[in-house]
Amino acid sequence: MPVSAAEPRLDSTDPAAQFVTYLDYYRAAVARKLDGLTGAQLTTSVLPSGWTPAELLIHLVHMERRWFVWGFLGEQVDDPWGDSGGDPEGPWQVPDGVTVAALLDNLHVGGERTRAVLAEHDLAERAAVGGRFAEDPPTLLWICFHVLQEYARHTGHLDVARELVDGSTGE
Q1: What whole-number distance in Å separates Cα of residue 39 and Cα of residue 98?
Q2: DSSP SS3 for 106
Q3: Cα(21)–Cα(7) distance, integer angstroms
Q4: What's the rounded Cα separation, in Å, for the pair 108 and 111?
Q5: φ, ψ for residue 139 (rounded to 5)?
Q6: Percent of the chain beyond pLDDT 70?
Q7: Where are the alpha helices (DSSP H) in 35-134?
Q8: What is the CATH code of the structural domain delimited by 15-166?
Q9: Among residues 34, 28, 37, which one has the least CA distance to residue 2?
Q10: Is 50 left (phi over 0), alpha (psi -120 to 50) or beta?
Q11: SS3 for 156?
Q12: What is the C-alpha to C-alpha distance for residues 18 and 93, in angstroms, rounded to an integer?
């Protein structure tokens, strides 16, 4: 999907294609909202909760991988909670030396992996046991909805942070 500020509208009745398109759209929206911010703006919080745009980005990178690779596929991943220092309840943090450019690359590489998962599996299929889930794994459909709402919510958060940083609003 081209990097567009226009909300996607597919005529397809294929739910997996809809998820792929919307997840691509939100990844592109995140990249647009970060574009033009200085290093200091990317790493400084303007919100009472304290997170920075770079920290939100690392969260999205890890979140998508946790749900589709570690969660659905059941593959072991290095440091699944790397966005929070290994603590699932910890605050987001970007390790020293990790750049926003590298995180954006990882975001899009993760998107490629998600597209492959959605192309190769039925939405009714349950996640593997042994990765993120020890029992009662959710369906791929549930995971898609969860990840989509995470992207929508956090893209909105990033929109507010960007407005507070430099007044930019909208797409």
Answers
A1: 12
A2: helix
A3: 10
A4: 5
A5: -80, 165
A6: 96
A7: 39-42, 53-65, 100-120
A8: 1.20.120.450
A9: 28
A10: left
A11: helix
A12: 31
Q: 138 vs 97, 155, 156, CA distance in Å?
A: 35, 24, 26
Report, in this order, helix, strand and coil percent for the chain, each rounded to 5: 55, 0, 45
Distance CA 118, CA 144 (A): 9
Q: Is the pLDDT of residue 1 over 70?
A: no
Residue with tokens 């699932």: 88
What are the residue boundaries of the structural domains of the chain, listed by start? Answer: 15-166
Stated length of the chain:
171
Cα–Cα distance, 79 to 92 (Å, whole number): 13
Q: End-to-end alpha-carbon separation of the chain, Å?
A: 16
Scanning the structure block, which residue is given the tokens 């220092």? 85
Q: For residue range 21-71, list pLDDT tens digits in order.
A: 999 999 999 999 999 999 999 999 999 999 999 999 999 999 999 999 999
Q: Is 139 helix (H, G, I), strand (E, B) or coil?
A: strand
Q: How many CA atoms lie within 13 A of 167 on its CB side?
A: 0
- The predicted model scores a pTM of 0.93
101: which 2 tokens? 């450019």
